[in-house]
Amino acid sequence: MVKNKKNYSAPALEKGLDILELLSSSNSGLSQAEIAKTLNRTVNEIYRMLTILVSRNYIELNNETERYQLTYKLLQISSKHQPIKSLMKKSMPVLREIAQLTNQSLHLSIYYAGKLLIIGQVDSPSQFNYSVPTGSTFDLLATSSGRVILAYQTQEERKRRLERRKLFLQYENKKLAKSKEIHSLEKKFTTKTVHEIIKNKCEVVKSLQIDGVTNICVPIFDHTNQAIAAMTIPYLQRINRTKNDLNVKDATKILKIKSLTLSNSLGFNSD
After folding, report:
1. Could you give phi then psi for residue 267, rounded to 5 degrees?
2. Cα–Cα dist 14/251, whole Å
């Protein structure tokens, strides 16, 4: 048992964790020099640690860009962690059922290191489909999933996650992090927005990512009554609708009912 963390240190371990956390904030990867500069380390000591992390398949080097990126190994490890494992095991059958009922695709996402991470996805049974690949990451405030998860956090936790978001954006794209669009998203995510999401128990809005898509998003709760994930239908309105195609209102109703059933199976107490 560690008695006093101030009396113990593991420089190599801390260095490796710093690198992993830094790379988790960048979708496009970082060069060896960028990593060293950001972490205030020498290029040589960073090189030794990068070599080890590559050999253990935690990160990979893009030989064309000479930039390092995270692999899916951490996601694979976390998926074996009981809470995530339980979430995935119970969520995927529900996602497949909703896809059949609504004739739409769905994805499941969680908060991860200042961004939104897609951990599960099911295609629409129809030939018209919009899907988000598992492992994709997005700006929290540019997605319904991110806003819904944030809305159900405490004010203190929401503030902490938004601060972490800024780091993610800074490492991902410094110009984007300073753009008017990003600041506009922050200003629009108000206390009123949070209250509306909680009141409606969902968010139904036009996608900020893709034209023609309406995002229908609901929270998923666990036994602690915390919103641990979000389930989203990127709804597509088909021109030649069939009897299997539901409107937004009906699709939202089904999503709410099924998400509550899923939350209850995870121990959520809605009383």
Report:
1. 100, 5
2. 47
Tokens of 260: 């509550």
pLDDT at 29: 86
DSSP 234: E
Domains of the chain by range and CATH?
9-71 (1.10.10.10), 76-265 (3.30.450.40)
| Residue 138 main-chain phi, psi, to 5 deg | -140, 160
Residues 113, 104: Cα–Cα separation, whole Å: 29
Q: Write the pLDDT tens digit of every residue in 127-175.
A: 778 888 888 888 899 999 999 999 999 999 999 999 888 877 766 555 5
Whole-angstrom distance, CA of residue 107 vs CA of residue 120: 6
CB 115 within 8 A of CB 140: yes
- Listed in sequence order, the residues at least 6 apart from 137 whose beta carbon sits closer than 8 Å to its beta carbon are 27, 112, 115, 116, 117, 118
**Comparing C-alpha atoms, which of 265, 266, 253 is closest to residue 201?**
253
Instruction: State pTM to two decimals.
Output: 0.72
CB 141 within 8 A of CB 165: yes
